[in-house]
Design brief:
about 300 residues, mainly alpha, three-stranded antiparallel sheet, 11 helices, about 5% strand
Length: about 300
């Protein structure tokens, strides 16, 4: 258990190793607010981050500048993986709804437009549709439970499918459901721990996003790092980069650390997740521990 806690902290503090993490977080937070292309850019950033985790790059974090086109392509590819896995569930659900006489109306078109403008919320489209269909009587509660279970099961496996992309560098490898499921089966407790880390982080976001717009971006970055640690644990890492170094060096305990720029960063912790908070007052670096120093 202590080993798992150490990996949680390494993932939560990984970004702080980069001296430019604050400006990158500001950029990532603002991209999340951009309609239509903002979320794909951020999802693509997560894919580019994997290259830094497993390759000898100069910095711990990739930069946005000059990379928007590449990030968009990577983001749309990642979205294809996510919704490609969910497509059978969508198809059965919509087919059942149509077979019972439902026809799209103006409200449906407005909802679809909303998801196009703000694709950040598009993964919630199916759960919301299940709730709407149940409330309006188009499907029964038992059917809704089955659709919700199917949705949850697919979403649970999707991170493992994206780990296949991390391992091979090829988005087509995400279609190998046998490999994705086998990875979960080899270490179910470790996979559940990574899921718990991500859920806690992204549960905090609705309460922190108003104060710190980059909180959601931090949750994305830290969760990508946490899941990709599984590749190292299972001997499947495609190379050696910043993540291997972070695992070797470790992190110091406490609620303050020194980042890669030499500035003290206060942390807000909840369970396995830690969130860097805005710098209100500087503390001398000697009063905090660097994230690159090993824990005691």
């Amino acid at each position: 258990m202590e080993h798992e806690r150490a990996k949680d902290r390494i993932a939560a503090l990984y970004a702080l190793r980069d001296p430019k993490w604050r400006s990158i977080y500001r950029a990532g937070g603002w991209w999340l607010l951009v309609p239509v292309i903002g979320w794909p850019v951020v999802i693509g950033y997560r894919r580019m981050l994997v290259d830094h985790l497993f390759a000898p790059k100069a910095t711990a974090l990739p930069r946005f500048r000059g990379q928007v086109g590449r990030l968009l392509v990577a983001g749309w590819s990642a979205m294809a993986v996510i919704f490609g896995h969910l497509l059978p569930v969508y198809a059965v659900f919509v087919g059942l709804w149509l077979a019972r006489g439902w026809t799209p109306n103006a409200w449906t078109l407005w909802c679809a437009l909303g998801f196009v403008l703000w694709p950040l919320w598009s993964p919630l489209s199916l759960p919301l549709a299940i709730g709407a269909a149940t409330w309006s009587g188009w499907i029964g509660s038992a059917e809704a439970a089955l659709f919700a279970a199917a949705f949850g099961s697919v979403v649970f496996v999707v991170p493992s499918a994206l780990l296949e992309v991390s391992r091979t560098g090829n988005y087509r490898s995400a279609l190998r459901a046998d490999r994705s499921i086998a990875r979960v089966a080899r270490a179910p407790r470790a996979y559940l721990r990574a899921w718990a880390f991500g859920l806690v982080g992204q549960t905090l976001v609705p309460f922190t996003l108003v104060l710190w717009p980059w909180a959601l971006f931090h949750a994305y970055v830290a969760t990508v790092v946490r899941f990709n640690q599984l590749l190292i644990d299972q001997g499947e890492a495609p190379g050696r980069g910043w993540l291997a170094r972070a695992a070797e060096v470790g992190t110091a305990p406490g609620n303050r650390v020194v980042d890669g720029a030499g500035h003290t960063v206060a942390l807000f912790s909840l369970g396995p997740f830690a969130l860097p908070v805005p710098r209100i007052a500087r503390v001398a670096p000697s009063q905090a521990e660097s994230p690159d120093r090993p824990s005691a």
